[in-house]
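Q: What does the assembly look like in three dimensions?
Context provided by user:
Components: four
Sequences:
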Amino acid sequence: MPHLRAPVTRRERQREATYDEIVDVSARLLAEGADLSLRAVAAGMGMTAPALYRYVASYQQLVDLVAFELDKAATAEWAEAAARFPEDDPAARLAVACARFRQWALTRPREFALVFANPIAEEDSERRDLLTLSTSGHYFTDLLWQIWELYQFPYPALDDLDPVIREAVLDPVIPAKADHIPTEDRGILWVYMRAWSALYGVVTLESTGHCDPRVIESGQLFRATLLDWLAPLGLHHERDRITTILDEELARP
Amino acid sequence: MPHLRAPVTRRERQREATYDEIVDVSARLLAEGADLSLRAVAAGMGMTAPALYRYVASYQQLVDLVAFELDKAATAEWAEAAARFPEDDPAARLAVACARFRQWALTRPREFALVFANPIAEEDSERRDLLTLSTSGHYFTDLLWQIWELYQFPYPALDDLDPVIREAVLDPVIPAKADHIPTEDRGILWVYMRAWSALYGVVTLESTGHCDPRVIESGQLFRATLLDWLAPLGLHHERDRITTILDEELARP
DNA sequence: GACGTAAGTTTACACCGTTTACCGTTAACG
DNA sequence: CGTTAACGGTAAACGGTGTAAACTTACGTC
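A: Here is the predicted structure of the complete assembly.
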């Protein structure tokens, strides 16, 4: 059994490369507007469909794999865009990241659906675990933590939380780098969940198109939702500045 | 060409019955956990798949038909549950309806996805039109209107709205019985859009399972989101009463 | 160099949506 | 009343899907 830093054998390297190619081809298919199918992916790699079963146990696993990598790649995009603001300005970074997240969801609704609207049943714990690793989730949580460090926005004490929620923030299964958050400050995670729920809501509504197209195009619904969250995050003093950044970001091509 | 109250011929009655059966069989399939497919529906009716093409032009149309009827049936359920409060208590009715909506989304995630997470492309205007007819949309809009009549919550003046949004509330393509809302009061529709977006958000998040299962089970995220909307709807004085109703509804089997 | 295993192939099965050609039955009309 | 056209269905077929099993080939290791 290989160690974690195992000397990668030739085979293992090749296998890793194949996984990368699977993701690449899948992403290309989706970008082209084609359906994501085992056969199409295989064909795109010059293989037959059953061969993919050496790498993935089922179609759903392929989807999960691709979803994870798409999320990772997308998050890198947002993060890069947000990085035009310095590290000590997490509020501005959050505004940019949210806007880019929305933009991504609007221009790539199929990818968005794959990553964020993919139903995850109560029971299958494998896919739940994968959800915990969500790159975007970690990124947003991290930004929120930095914002708290800077602005010290109020958050519920553990005693004020519903017992179930208390348990959930103490031992989170959501994507969150929570280890570095002191136990008594875990109420922050509740703020995170609520904020994420709001962001997820508008973006999903707009991305799936269950909304007046003009409203989507204007970006007002998204804008209003985000502005509502400035105060709870202790950013009321930053309102004008963040609004400017947001509008600037929304006006982007 | 028959009039609107055309004397229904035998054929027309039979055809209508067939449509009903299509919906019934489809609903049964979904309830059984099976996939919704043309072939399965046809088989369930003792027909062959191509025969269904006499009634729907494509699989997507079948889905739309079923989605519309599922929405209608579900709305009837919520409305009936909400009707345990009198007509002059729209706030209580809204609380119950929202809770039932969520309950429905949680117990029937596949149906929910069909109706509310079904991607609608920008272009295809047919499906957009269908969206405008959404029964649940009309029901919720109507409740909100009644709440406004009773509590007169503040809403933005037309001049304060973004031009695009102003246009959208004056000539809405969303499901809303807006004809009876005076032009100058159309800002209410903006409140409606925002509230619906928030409700849609949590419910979708919970229904698709992109969330800690314990948080879902506790209902706290949903509860908090709804409570946040009491004030904007002029229901701050009703907070305790509505909260009780909501908790009672959430505790239901 | 032999052996075991990993990574492919081919073949096959059971589905899927959709199109075409064909055929009774049914309703409408001159 | 008889003719005609539309309606509602069938069977067959095409190309597509995920998946399973058996088989082959090539590689890495002892």
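Follow-up: The interface with chain A takes residues 109-110, 113, 116-122, 128, 131, 162, 164-165, 167-168, 172-174, 193-194, 197-198, 200-202, 204-205, 207-215, 217-218, 220-221, 224-225 of chain B (CB under 8 Å).
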